[in-house]
Amino acid sequence: MDEKEFQQKLIQRYLNNQCTDEELEAFFHLIEKGLITDALIQEMDVLLNTDEDTSHQDVQLYPDAEKRKLNLRRLLGYAAMLLLCFSTCFYFVQHRIHPINTAELVKYDTVETQRGEIKRIELADKSVLFLNAHSRLRYPEKFSNKLREVDLLEGEVYCAIYHDKNKPFIVRSGNINTQVLGTAFNISFYKYLKSVSISVTQGKVSVTAPGQNSKLNKSILLPGDKISINKLSGKTTYSKIAMADDAMGWTSGKLIFDNKSLGEVANVLSDRFNTEIGFADNSIMHYHITATFNSTDHLLDIIKMLCISNKLRYHVTDKKIVLMFN
């Protein structure tokens, strides 16, 4: 008698209440070990669903047979669950899945500034960052052994980077990477601006960004250099900053506009003074201005100067200033 025949015979004897103590022990051992095959289960199902006459006869001859059939169904359910647990455990052992080492996970902090707010951030490597109003920055609590990376999610940041020749410092702003070893530079990455701008005040900076031909372009900037990269086209424009103050003046509260459109100026003023500034006619947004304002200058004083220089006037409503033609 082969194994399958033995199993079938054993099950039949169990249904007919004919098992000895040794056979009962073997039967339960068979189920506990998950040795019941799918084919055998189907055959058992046939045995459990005999016609009514046979079933009636079984009940008459063996009063406990029907009860045993119900118990067998329960046992089969338990066996299926055991097989599932066993299979799952076997899968994890075979694929050598190990628990995550939480000590290796990098923890990040995200700093956000509101309108009218500037924050100073000191990183784990002693680098110092200044985050302009309405900006978000993400950085690790501790840098890796090879790189120092932070993400400017939005806004503007001025970076004074601690020199470490073995660990380059990288600022990611969208798809643009700015890499240094130790230097000072400024990145402007506001959503309302068409371009990302990087200005260098000290040291050397490498900027990598997708170009107009979708290939990565790499630019090297020295002190006084400024690069502007169009977010949509990838077009690159180079220019010079007259002095370091042009790039970092905002960190001390200064507002420096070098041939900026009134649309950009309005956004900067809105972030600095937490006041909405609009235009009665959209064409006014395209006027350009070059000007510097100190941290002590009040918003309305700045607005008056903008209006005088562009032959405009303004109207003040609830927390909103509207510029219009005279």
TrEMBL record:
Q: Name one GO molecular function term.
A: sigma factor antagonist activity
Q: Which UniProt keyword terms apply here? A: Membrane, Transmembrane, Transmembrane helix
> What Gene3D superfamilies does the record tag this protein with?
2.60.120.1440, 3.55.50.30
Q: Which Pfam families match?
A: FecR, FecR_C
- Residue ranges annotated as coiled coil are none
Cite the InterPro entries for this sequence.
FecR, FecR_C, Ferrdict_sens_TM
Q: Which residues form the FecR protein domain?
A: 109-205
The molecule here is called FecR family protein
What organism does the UniProt record list as the source?
Answer: Mucilaginibacter mallensis
